[in-house]
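Postdoc handover notes: sequence design on the structure in folder B. Input tokens:
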């Protein structure tokens, strides 16, 4: 009789989409009997496990959907290698309040200075806070938009990029865009203005962004919107990768 009840209970839990409760019911029942806890504690333990598993699964989905090229959490970033970094600001950004406030973050600096690593780390923190996040290179996004411009998918793709809580554009400025590519990227970023956060890593100072977008009017308008209430983090230090290479050769 007990087995019949257990089977029915498991099926009911599955029907209610409480899969973790269903799979762990036998273990929790055994532990409850061994420890002699009451019904209320038993149900609390069971519900807590369900919530923990759901949170873990949600984080896994968020990180998978963000499409980070490499998983580089905050713990892996060598803060000693960037002594000029504003540590207080960086830690504040880890708290993700800038996303809640729809503010942008822009990393300016040369190659190898850790811009992508920091952006990835902050993106992972955003996923942990359950924010919809997407990581893509600036050139990759423009290519995706150009490839779909002749189809009905363009509107859908642009709408999708407007809905992320945090859009991370990596390596903006390494490759200049065509006129049409610049206009499409402008539309995406304009749609996100004060609706969602944008994080950008670039090797160019603001005065040189015309090299990327071509049109000075588009560049000026875009900069005006991106830098409005944005956090700008300058990375003037030497390339970390270059220093590592020199050290290894000695």
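Designed sequence:
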């Amino acid at each position: 009789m007990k087995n019949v009840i257990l089977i029915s209970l498991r099926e009911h839990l599955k029907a209610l989409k409480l899969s973790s409760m269903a799979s762990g019911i036998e273990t929790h029942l055994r532990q409850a009997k061994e420890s002699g806890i009451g019904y209320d504690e038993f149900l609390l333990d069971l519900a807590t496990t369900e919530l923990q598993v759901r949170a873990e699964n949600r984080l896994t989905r968020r990180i998978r959907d963000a499409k980070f090229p490499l998983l580089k959490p905050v713990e892996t970033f060598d803060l000693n290698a960037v002594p000029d970094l504003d540590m207080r600001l960086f830690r504040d950004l880890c708290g993700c309040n800038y996303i809640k406030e729809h503010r942008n973050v822009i990393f300016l600096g040369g190659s190898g200075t850790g811009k992508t690593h920091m952006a990835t780390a902050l993106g992972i923190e955003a996923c942990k806070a359950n924010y919809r996040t997407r990581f893509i290179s600036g050139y990759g996004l423009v290519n995706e938009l150009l490839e779909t411009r002749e189809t009905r998918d363009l509107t859908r793709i642009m709408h999708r990029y407007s809905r992320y809580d945090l859009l991370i554009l990596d390596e903006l400025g390494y490759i200049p865009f065509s006129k049409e590519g610049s206009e499409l990227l402008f539309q995406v970023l304009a749609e996100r203005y004060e609706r969602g956060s944008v994080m950008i890593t670039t090797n160019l100072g603001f005065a040189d962004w015309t090299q990327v977008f071509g049109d000075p009017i588009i560049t000026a308008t875009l900069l005006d919107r991106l830098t409005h209430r944005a956090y700008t983090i300058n990375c003037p230090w030497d390339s970390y990768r270059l220093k590592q290479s020199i050290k290894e050769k000695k």
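Context for whoever picks this up: Strands lie at 105-109, 133-137, 166-172, 197-202, 231-235. Don't rerun without checking with the PI first.
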